[in-house]
Amino acid sequence: FKSTEWIDNGDGTATLKGIFTLRGVSKPIELRVKQIGAGKDPWGGFRRGFEATTTLKLSDYKMKEAHILGPVAENVEVWISIEGVRK
Q: How far is the C-alpha of 22 from the C-alpha of 36, rounded, in Å?
């Protein structure tokens, strides 16, 4: 994933736009981002946590064939949790 734009929605959420590559196929996607916390940590640093979600259509990424473990859903919801430390 390579980000291209950050849009503050003004309600505590943001939209992160970028190009996502899977199986050699690159497509623009949007992540819905929400800050879930921020503050000092026990080691004297400052941390900020975010959650992001998006839905991918797997056939867009050449994933149409049957999977070895069984059928694969056409649409998959992706959840990302990330924490950053200020340097």
A: 27
Please tell me the distance from the alpha carbon of residue 87 to that of residue 83, in angstroms, as a whole number. 13
Strand order in the sheet with 25-40: 2-8, 13-22, 25-40, 46-57, 75-85
Domain span holding position 68: 2-85
Confidence of residue 70 (pLDDT cuts 50, 70, 90): confident
User: 3-class SS at 60?
Assistant: helix
* pLDDT interval class at 15 (50, 70, 90): very high
| pLDDT value, residue 26 | 97
Residue 70's DSSP bridge partners are: 67
What is the number of structural domains in the chain? 1
The domain that holds 10 is classified in CATH as 2.40.128.110
**Which regions of 9-73 does DSSP assign to beta strands (E)?**
13-22, 25-40, 46-57
Which residue in the block uniquely carries the two structure tokens 């900020």? 48
